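Homework-ish question, so no full write-ups if that breaks the rules, but can someone show me the predicted structure for this set?
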Amino acid sequence: MTTLLTPPVIDAREPGTDFGALEVVKTRHWLRWILSAVAVFIVLQLLWSVVTTPTYKWDVFAKYFFAPAILRGLGLTLLFTVVAGTIGFLAGGVLALMRLSKSPLLNGFAWSFIWFFRSVPLMVQVLVWFNLGYLYPTIGLGIPFTTNYFVEAETVVLISAFAAAVLGLSLHQAAYSAEIIRGGILSVDQGQLEAAAALGLPRSVRIRRIILPQAARSILPNAFNEIIGLLKGTSIISVIAIGELFYVAQVIYNRNHDVIPLLLVAVVWYAILTTVLSIGQFYIERHFARGSARVLPPTPIQRARAWARYQWSRLDEEVGR
Amino acid sequence: MTAATLTHGPASTAGLVEVRNVHKSYNGVEVLRDVSLTIEPGEVVTILGPSGSGKSTLLRAINHLETVDRGWVALDGALIGYEQRGGKLYELKEREILKRRTQVGVVFQNFNLFPHLTALQNIIEAPVALKRLSKADARELAIGLLERVGLGDKADSYPRQLSGGQQQRVAIARALALQPKVLLFDEPTSALDPELVGEVLDVIRDLSKLGTTLVIVTHEIGFAREVSDRVVFIDRGVVLETGTPAEVLSNPQHPRTREFLATVL
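A: Not a homework solution, just the prediction itself:
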């Protein structure tokens, strides 16, 4: 097919023109302009309705936003996030290393653990821990495979609602973070391991100093996803009547029937915490990106400063003129 | 020994490498077949051979990055992965293997510098982690080594900010920091742009004069002829020919050697 091979004809230069002397007319992106206008309309319409609709009851929102009960709930939410996040990621790290171990037994154990705790819904798991007393009325330490206990305690006393929540959240988190950490470790080039081994670095040093800092680059975005998920996931433990943020909001609106304003209180607090975590994520990822690019991109603050400097110099010029 | 003498003093004592009747296979494919080779202390030996001939495997077996199926590899009369007690060979604990392995430095084809550490941090990592040197002494040693490979001003650069040739020279400095008795080079210039090959070969040439035992896998025949005391030709896991560069490169006896040299020269 010769027609296909014919090169497209491009307007040739009029004889004697100097392209450099001509005016440049930029392409107009009409669709982009229309869609932008639609987006602006949607945002404005939303804002208008949020401000003018009386049923939002912003006065109730304001009254409860810093209420001591809400702040106590917020504290508990943070506490559970930190405790379960720490235990979850530490246990997840150990599980990830077990999954990568040459011992099929360790590998199998870790695989089963992850399989099980990923299979059971978090809410179900928390309820099972909370009701473990029905299964094992007492828990004790004694001779293995017998019921001769040296110390024995009632399960209901040993596993309080708090403990049930920590257990449920941590084990759930461990299973998920194990896979994230394992993925990160696998993403590190095999040559790095070899070079580290050839230098005679002990295994612990290889993991801590060479593998993990490099794995962190791919672990961190997912890990922050998980932490943010966990932060909001703590609302599930309201099913066993723990007074975290969501539970407190529920208790209050069950009394005064201002459902939406109190849910909004919870929503805004969750959004604030997520924002703080996202900012932390940006800077931590930046720290672990060292060496990955010749020059790191500027932080938002640096960018804002550069912008301000640029505007200032323009203003200077204008005034000077 | 202070850092200063490590840098400027004589090179570390050279090691004797003995490879005896080594066999190695992967999934039933024999990569090394009854390979025996003795490399004298201070000798510079180049290993030549077509791709897949087992050169790299042999090199990796020397520092026990690769275990062998049969036969043994010894450094200065001691096995790297095993210990002889009575009539038996006991597999060594990892810690002990690592200690012996530090006597053998490796320079890889792809440099394998740690990308999250600066050139200087790459070099001091092992001496500090193994508690050979204090951090201050290690820094002094590293700066001396970087100067020796012509990169005195690149101490704080990350690997990605360096050219391939510069990275490989940092990798050589890193290997030297542990004062190995033997240095292994696994195709050190194969990943480099042609104009960067020379700077790396210059550094290796300097090392060859200092008396460390060097084992070099390379495709740079001209360089092999110039620096080697001895050239070993391997094909399909078998040592076909060994001798001085003049013997093997100018007057090869085996038809496979002649064929190989004809294709690369």
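Now go work out the reasoning yourself. Hint: Chain A has one domain: 58-287.
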